[in-house]
Amino acid sequence: MIRMATPETETTHGDYQKGTQPVHEQQATYSLFMSLAKWGSLQIAVGITFFVLWLQPGGSIVFGFVAALALAVIGYFALKSKPAKH
């Protein structure tokens, strides 16, 4: 049997007021997700760069390592957190 909304249940759910719910957990989860996404993307890009330049016909493991290292350094400085402005 499916229960429908009744006047008794409407009052318990109708007490919500916009802007009163704490959002600390949602902010922490979003921050963690964004951090993992950006650093994970950099790791994938570095790995793909290394293996493509190493395993292509005529490729070089040294050139692949140097290019991947350069991408990692540039990516680190591009993605690191900036200090908060007050």
TrEMBL record:
Membrane-spanning parts: 36-55, 61-79
InterPro entries: Cyt-C_aa3_sf, Cyt_c_oxidase_su4_bac-aa3
Residue ranges of the region described as Disordered: 1-23
Domain (Cytochrome c oxidase subunit IV bacterial aa3 type): residue spans on this chain: 25-55
Xref: SUPFAM superfamilies: Bacterial aa3 type cytochrome c oxidase subunit IV
UniProt entry keywords in alphabetical sequence: Membrane, Transmembrane, Transmembrane helix
Any one Pfam family match given in the protein's UniProt record, by short name: COX4_pro_2
The protein's name: Cytochrome c oxidase subunit IV bacterial aa3 type domain-containing protein
Organism in which the protein naturally occurs: Brevundimonas halotolerans
